[in-house]
Write a structure and sequence with these properties.
The complex is a heterodimer. By secondary structure, chain A is of the alpha+beta class. Chain A folds into three domains: about 240 residues, Aldehyde Oxidoreductase, domain 4 (2-Layer Sandwich), CATH 3.30.365; about 150 residues, Aldehyde oxidase/xanthine dehydrogenase, molybdopterin binding domain (Aldehyde Oxidoreductase, domain 4); about 200 residues, 2-Layer Sandwich (Aldehyde Oxidoreductase, domain 4), CATH 3.30.365.10. Chain A has 21 helices and 27 strands. In chain B, helix 2 crosses helix 5. Classes of the chains: A alpha+beta, B alpha+beta. At the A-B interface, helix 9 and helix 20 of A face helix 1, helix 2, helix 3, helix 4 and helix 5 of B.
Chain lengths: ~750, ~150
């Protein structure tokens, strides 16, 4: 790790930026952190680690809580290196101040990248990096939560080191007190113990002296064999307040004299406000202010339902702007044209895919639709503008520090004039990442229009679904040629995108000639990161196509993958585990089918085997999803399993039902009845099996999602012979015919 | 117009329009924010409260129809009911936003049917959870049911 970090530091220096020292705080930084986030009797020993006089260790987490359990798991990583008594450990959210930026996250990603260009920043961070000032240096002023990064980046590159450094400082303080060598001390259960003299000290009584030492940037880390806390399914800190209803989310922000704002945005993207019947709303009870914006109308009232009723009374009209002629049909036509372009720039991953394709080519086209995030808590923010130039904002976002800067920019204020209160998040899945902050924009603009009045601006579910930043609609064309034994000789894939080529388009299968290309399209629909990002489409395309090749080769689809993964022991082990636990190959009743898919994303390899039943009527029942996953070593195995379960349900909602369609430049869907999601009745049994390996720590929040759709459509093919190449499944009629021909649709 | 509401055993007088949705009266007038807004049209269940022991979706219920009724919200359930304890034991919530409504719906079901089957649970509890906690909701309810009913 140190070698790679040394490379990183020289690279960053060449780029004129500074990312060194996130775990090595100068004393001035510690003093600032203490002012911001320490109570009397608490001391910061290193970044993110506080020790109080009563031994209580607080882990200050530079991420938001959106339900993924990272506060608990990061505390486990820190407490492990500290040798803390778990009953005396807690976690708190870091204040949105640069001193608590999670630079380790960016550094972690950069360790995996040689070139420090904007394009080497992962997609979910790109908007933030671009937003700041297009340099990596600024992107370290982030508190982003996304990319399944909290543990494998902040934890591995930051928290563990910070905690180990803090432990060394506590040992030094004890050694100084006994005038002994630090080598004679060990730590256990929040105590520093000197076996030679039999004396020991609690962390609390050493904290003040320890804080005077400088944290080491290169502390000794525990070997895995000594772990006591990592690898245990400890209960999450956040759950009790979530079952009592006491937890205050962004929507619950409590501010004196609070007013409520309801908003109606132009239906079409790029549309403008044309007219409102102000006289119809002004006399209504509780209405305080009608705020006309270029592309929206807002009513501020003393209660939310009054604001919403007044909004309806206004009968606002909008024009369709420049996108009035855009529809799903025009978007798909643009995709077809882009894929026909002979000038698609291809990336060869090995051999020469295009040249090796030859004559007998298997060609398939796939499509995935736009998708909304639809978190249960619709986006919202509370803001108070106090002239001449102070702004206070309360909101749940996936990057509090960036959100504070964004609000300042929106209001035209210096960052120092903005106080930002990060609040827990009722689901995000990418929706609250930088680049998707329209709710902050409108809240700040409304607050400025109603000075001295705190306003809580809430998107209704309809606005939330119709003004999201959507998972892109992507069309692809896959081509392959097979050797006489049925294995692929060449594999060439092209897909539509507004970005540069995604590395997720690469396959890990052993195919001698491979290439993938990005066909450029412009999307009139705003797009953004959605749980598992590019893997959500590439996973579906690749794992559908390899299944089709297996069928063409008259091979069992799991065994076909096995043959192509002989050089990939971790992938193979995950595949075998999924096969074993799902009973792959065992006879099934009539009308049942199994499908498999395996995708590596965010450092974790996941294989799902999905078991479906398709009735003669075409009615589909998903009975079971058997998951096998390798994330290296799970910090909190039950928490990891919960994330994979959630990823499966999220992916299943999308695969079965999810589709945002466009007419007249606007989203057609409005609410859950026309944007359905999985409920208890259609949720399959989900089993998660861990394959613990020596691999680096992988993510948890996202990797469970990508293999869901292909394992489902592959299972439907096995049951019916119907191959679904365009999601969602609900658009297709599933009548049962045995898989007799190569191409049944 | 002043209306009398009985929520969590306490009587409140609120000056609101009779057609104001119960959800917003509970949240904005009574400041009981454990009950959540999710869809506004009574389909997602985030706003579920109990009215005379029945689970109801408060976002579409005019407050006038709740007068004289016994309203129970998540705050009235306390923090250590059987369902809440099972939720902790099975580590059910993720983001937690839908769980107040989920817990109120499950509690109402269990009061009427102490040992529901998976199918009965799914038919009665149609609440949406975007984090996908359904397998754990099911496991927690099974655990409660197994203590109550015949072995299934």
């Amino acid at each position: 790790m140190m070698t790679r970090r040394a490379v990183l530091i020289s690279g960053v220096t060449a780029a004129g930026a500074l990312v060194v020292g996130y775990a090595l705080w100068p004393s001035g930084r510690l003093a600032r952190a203490s002012r911001l986030a320490a109570k009397p009797g608490e001391r910061f020993l290193s970044s993110w680690i506080k020790v109080a006089d009563d031994d209580l260790v607080t882990v200050v987490v530079p991420h938001c809580d959106m339900g993924t359990g990272t506060f608990t798991a990061l505390a486990q990583m820190a407490a492990e290196e500290l040798d803390a008594d778990w009953t005396k450990v807690q976690a708190q959210i870091a204040p949105p101040d640069p001193v608590f930026a999670n630079g380790a996250l960016v550094e972690g990603f950069l360790c995996e990248e040689a070139n420090l260009t904007l394009n080497s920043v992962p997609f979910f961070l790109r908007a933030a990096a671009a937003n700041a000032s297009r340099t990596i240096a600024d992107s370290i002023h982030l508190q982003t939560t996304g990319g399944s990064s909290a543990l494998r980046m902040t934890g591995v590159y930051g928290m563990r080191i910070a905690a180990a450094a803090a432990r060394e400082m506590l040992v030094k303080a004890a050694a100084a007190r006994l005038a002994a060598s630090p080598d004679g001390f060990r730590t256990e259960m929040s105590r520093v113990i000197h076996d030679g003299s039999g004396k020991s000290f609690g962390f609390g009584e050493l904290a003040a002296a320890a804080a005077r030492w400088t944290p080491s940037s290169n502390p000794r880390l525990k070997p895995k064999s000594a772990y006591r806390l990592i690898g245990r399914s400890l209960p999450r800190f956040d759950i009790p307040a979530k079952v009592s209803g006491a937890l205050e989310y962004g929507i619950d922000a409590s501010v004196p004299d609070l007013h409520y704002a309801a908003i109606k945005l132009a239906r079409a993207f790029g549309g403008r406000l044309r007219s409102v019947r102000e006289e119809a709303a002004t006399p209504l009870r509780g209405v305080r202010k009608i705020v006309r914006l270029d592309d929206a109308i807002v009513v501020v009232a003393d209660r939310f339902w009054r604001a919403r009723n007044a909004l309806e009374a206004l009968q606002p009209t909008f024009d369709a702007g420049v996108n009035g002629a855009v529809s799903s049909q025009t978007i798909h036509a643009s995709h077809r044209r882009a894929l026909e372009d002979a000038k698609i720039r291809r990336h060869r991953t090995s051999g020469d895919g295009a040249a090796a394709l030859g004559g007998a080519v298997i060609e398939r086209n796939y499509n995935v639709p736009y998708l909304a995030h639809a978190p249960m808590e619709p986006v919202n923010a509370t803001a108070l503008y106090t002239p001449p130039g102070a702004l206070e904002v309360w909101a749940g976002t996936q990057d509090a520090l960036g959100a504070r800067a964004f609000c300042a920019k929106t209001a035209g204020l210096p960052v120092g004039k903005v106080v930002f209160h990060p609040l827990p998040i009722g689901g995000a899945f990418g929706r609250r990442l930088p680049g998707q902050w329209n709710f902050l924009t409108y809240a700040v603009k409304t607050a400025i229009a109603v000075p001295n009045v705190p306003i809580k601006l809430l998107f209704t579910r309809e606005e939330d679904i119709q003004h999201d930043f959507y998972r892109p609609n992507v069309t692809s064309r896959f081509r392959a040629s097979l050797r006489p034994d049925g294995s692929p000789l060449a594999w060439v894939s092209d897909y539509t995108t507004g970005d540069d080529a995604d590395p997720e388009a690469q396959i890990f299968y052993d195919v001698p000639n491979q290439a993938y290309g990005a066909a450029k399209v412009a999307s009139p629909v705003p797009t953004g990161a959605w749980r598992s990002v590019a893997s959500s489409w590439h996973g579906f395309f690749i794992e559908s196509f390899v299944d089709e090749l297996a069928y063409e080769a008259h091979r069992d689809p799991l065994d076909y993958r096995r043959t192509l993964l002989q050089g990939k022991p971790r992938h193979l082990a995950v595949l075998e585990l999924a096969a074993e636990k799902s009973g792959w190959g065992a006879p099934l009743p009539e009308r049942y089918g199994r499908g498999v898919a395996i995708v590596e994303s965010f450092g974790t390899i996941v294989a799902h085997v999905t078991l479906v039943e398709v009735a003669d009527s075409g009615a589909l029942k998903v009975h079971r999803v058997t998951c096998a996953a390798d994330c290296g070593m799970a910090i909190n195995p039950d928490g990891f399993r919960a994330q994979i379960e959630g990823g499966v349900v999220f992916g299943l909602s999308a695969a079965l039902y999810g589709a945002i369609t466009i007419e007249h430049g606007a989203v057609v869907q409005r609410n859950f009845p026309d944007y359905p999601v999985v409920r208890l009745a259609d949720c399959p049994a989900i089993e998660v099996h861990l394959h613990q390996s020596e691999g680096p720590l992988g993510g948890a929040g996202e990797p469970g999602t990508p293999p869901v759709a292909p394992s489902l459509t592959n299972a439907i093919f096995a049951a019916t012979g119907i191959r679904i190449r365009e999601l969602p499944v609900a658009r297709h009629e599933l009548r049962r015919t045995p898989p007799a021909t190569a191409d049944s649709i | 117009m002043t209306l009398r509401l009985q929520v969590n055993g306490q009587v409140h007088e609120v000056d609101v329009e009779p057609d104001a949705p119960l959800l917003w009266v509970i949240r904005d007038e009574l400041k009981l924010t454990g009950t959540k807004y999710g869809c506004g049209i009574g389909v997602c269940g985030a706003c579920t409260v109990q009215m005379n022991g029945q689970a109801v979706r408060s976002c579409t219920l005019p407050v006038a129809s709740a007068v004289d009724a016994d309203i129970l919200t998540i705050e009235g359930l306390g923090a250590s009911s059987e369902v809440q304890q099972a939720w902790i034991e099975h580590q059910v919530p993720q983001c937690g936003y839908c769980q107040s409504g989920m817990i109120m719906a499950v509690t109402a079901l269990l009061a009427a049917k102490p040992a529901p089957t998976d199918d009965e649970l799914a038919a009665a509890v149609t609440n949406i959870c975007r984090c996908g906690t359904y397998p754990r909701v099911r496991a927690a309810v099974r655990a409660i049911a197994s203590r109550k009913g015949p072995v299934r």
